[in-house]
Design brief:
- The structure holds two protein chains of two kinds.
- By secondary structure, chain A is mainly alpha-helical.
- Chain A contains 14 helices and no strands.
- The longest helix of chain A is centred in the N-terminal third of the chain and has 24 residues.
- Chain A starts with 18 loop residues before the first helix and ends in a 12-residue tail after the last helix.
- Chain B contains ten helices and two strands.
- In chain B, strands 1-2 form a two-stranded antiparallel ribbon.
- At the A-B interface, helix 5 of A face loops of B.
């Protein structure tokens, strides 16, 4: 009797990965950057992270309880949002900035649009831009115990010299998690090894930004200048952790390349021609808004359909 | 239908132009940076609305059907010009704050909408109170939005500081995105209240109605089809609920077309500023 075949309907091949396992891996991959942030900026950075994560998770819990929906805080997506948001805050920000940002990210950007999978833009970035517009002076004040003065990108924009080695390691002023290229790349390797992300979006993003800066940066192919642009600001964090967000990236392969190129061009425009030194978060948000259109024009044709009509 | 009280309640609650009909979004979003501005815009619109309703209603048997829209515009534009000059002369700070949005009242779709849907078909006195009711509803809505935005974005209310010293203004609320947030949340609250009211068995069926039940003169593409729905509803009241969302959407579509002119001009102005 054991020879009986099991009869079941499709799908027959199932993946073991679940939302919570993917999100948990992302949390792990963010830990190097978070750890370096704490090492670099002190315990206040840890406090800010805890407040932000707590506020995102509690907001999601409270909203789902009040609306009598299924509670989904176990899938770690709120933790990822909170952690990403905290990594995007300057360490000098007061604790309530993290709380307001966390509530905004989950409540307005995510839950009001239908929860995970329905949000049209990355919640962490949406909240960061909300905070940036609302509390400009707090959000652009990068002074802290360890560093004073402008961020490397701002210094670069003013024509000052920057130390590239410091920027790669992360010993510069900036938001908590964006300074260290090394730590972010370690996290990105974890994501790539576990198959959470691939290099389509980050690769096309970074390459197109390099090309844009070479063309329009005013210095030609000046590698120190280009590498300062790559290691400075939120580019690495944005390219690997936020542009690749499953919900807000295109699902078609060609669309992902297009999306990456678009982000590179937008970031280049904001950084070189814009009034502020940094443009990654606005670029990704605008990219998020264009995702439905990108998907529409890059939808692959089904076999046998859409050929030329004779 | 035509009593004074009914018209006022209709304008303020049942068919509130901002929260229910979603009309006149351009001034709603653009000038409500403070409660005073919202109130000023609302009252200015109310004056124009009431006066133009009266005149259109008086002239409704003279104006030929084919040129009624240009005729409405002429009447409305005359009143807007008067109000604009009066504001400039007597309340200059409001005139400065509202700026281009005062002349833009001419193409405000609430006024044109009420002229078309109500004043052109009804006697003078009900039309006057329809205008006042709608204008009051608009004022209430704009003042609410302005108050919330001012409170969060500047920490004041009607220019008086009410928040504690430690409050840091969330300046996004007095910028354009804040207008959308506040409008959306207030509309959601308003809808929620309506749903609770419906559950308690109160008759809220009229709240969604948009164009004064005058469907005969609407074009075929518009809500002429509603007439059929209406008949079905009277025969079978239980169907009413199922029909509702469709009707509301249809009406909003019509009004959006009317609103478009206002909105585009307004947006350009925003960019210039």
């Amino acid at each position: 009797m054991n020879d009986l075949m099991k009869v079941s309907s499709n799908p027959h091949v199932r993946s073991k990965s679940t939302t919570s396992s993917i999100m948990f891996t992302v949390v792990i991959a963010l830990l190097p950057a978070a750890g370096f942030g704490i090492y670099n900026f002190g315990l206040k950075a840890l406090l800010l992270m805890l407040v932000t994560v707590a506020s995102t998770v509690l907001t999601e819990f409270a909203f789902e309880k009040i609306c009598k929906k299924k509670v989904t805080i176990g899938d770690y997506s709120a933790v990822v949002t909170g952690l990403l948001l905290a990594l995007n805050l300057p360490v000098s920000a007061p604790w309530w900035i993290g709380m307001v940002g966390g509530v905004f990210a989950i409540l307005v950007v995510k839950m009001l649009f239908g929860g995970l999978g329905q949000n049209f833009m990355n919640p962490a970035l949406g909240a960061r831009c909300f905070l940036l517009i609302s509390f400009t002076s707090i959000m652009t004040n990068f002074d802290c115990d360890a560093y004073t003065g402008a961020t490397p990108l701002a210094a670069l924009k003013n024509g000052e010299a920057v130390n590239i080695l410091d920027m790669v390691i992360g010993r510069t002023a900036g938001t908590i998690g964006e300074t260290s290229m090394v730590a972010i790349v370690i996290g990105a390797c974890i994501l790539i090894l576990f198959g959470i992300i691939d290099l389509r979006i980050p690769g096309s993003y970074i390459v197109s930004l390099v090309i844009f800066i070479s063309l329009f940066g005013g210095r030609g192919i000046d590698w120190p200048y280009i590498s300062a642009h790559l290691s400075g600001g939120g580019l690495m964090l944005g390219a690997f952790f936020m542009a690749t967000d499953y919900v807000t990236r295109p699902i078609t392969k060609r669309g992902q390349y297009l999306y990456g190129i678009l982000l590179g061009i937008l970031t280049g425009i904001f950084r070189i021609f814009g009034p502020s030194a940094e443009g990654v978060s606005y670029a990704i948000i605008i990219g998020n808004l264009l995702v439905p259109l990108i998907e529409k024009i890059t939808l692959p044709k089904a076999f046998g359909k859409g050929g030329e009509k004779s | 239908m035509n009593s004074v009280k009914e018209r006022l309640v209709n304008g303020i609650v049942k068919e509130n132009p901002t929260f229910v009909l979603m009309l006149g979004m351009c001034p709603t979003l653009a000038v409500t940076t403070s409660a005073v501005n919202g109130l000023g815009m609302g009252l200015t619109t109310m004056v124009v609305l009431a006066l133009s309703n009266v005149f259109i209603s008086m002239l409704r048997n003279i104006i030929p059907d084919k040129v009624r829209i240009p005729a409405f515009i002429v009447i409305i534009a005359s009143f807007v010009t008067m109000v604009e000059l009066l504001l400039q002369g007597f309340i200059p700070f409001l005139y400065d704050a509202l700026g281009i949005y005062i002349p833009l009242i001419v193409v405000n779709c609430i006024i044109l909408g009420r002229a078309e849907a109500y004043a052109y078909k009804n006697p003078v006195i009900p039309s006057l109170f329809d205008g006042i009711g709608m204008g009051l509803g608009f004022s209430v809505a704009l003042t609410c939005i302005g108050a919330v935005r001012e409170l969060l974005g500047a920490g004041t209310l009607f220019g008086i500081g009410v928040m504690p010293e430690s409050f840091v203004p969330v300046s996004i609320f007095i910028m354009a995105p804040g207008a959308f947030f506040v409008l959306a949340v207030l509309t959601a609250i308003q809808n929620k209240v309506k749903i609770i009211g419906e559950r308690k068995g109160k008759d809220m069926s009229k709240i969604q109605s948009g164009c004064g039940n005058d469907c005969l003169k609407c074009s075929d593409t518009g809500c002429a089809k509603r007439l059929i729905d209406e008949k079905a509803e009277t025969a079978e009241p239980s169907r009413e609920k199922a029909e509702k969302p469709k009707k509301v959407r249809k009406e909003i579509e019509i009004e959006e077309i009317m609103d478009e002119e206002t909105e585009t001009t307004g947006e350009e102005e925003n960019e210039n500023a």
